[in-house]
Amino acid sequence: MQHLNDATRTELEAAAFRRLLKHLDEHKEVQNIDLMILADFCRNCLSKWLVNAADERGAELDYDTAREYVYGMPYEDWKAKYQQEATPEQFAALEAHQARKQEQEGT
Hints:
mainly alpha; SMc04008-like fold; globular; DUF1244 domain-containing protein
């Protein structure tokens, strides 16, 4: 993508991000803990990344507003409708993932 100018690259990146959000919205059955286990990020991470990007550019964006954008609704509403209780197996998988990550960072 180096052959693209900055504006075009930014537009493509933004379009891909919007498509990622749409995909996550279409797959509400995918829980945040599953995303963390498999990909080391979740919807909340995306929200935090948006807030950090805004901070870096001197723009105001609070975490709740960013989460509402990522979730497509207020977080508490999404949580009540779609978030399932994490299973012991999911917690164990997340702990194992985090341990592997720490081990890799230590090497």
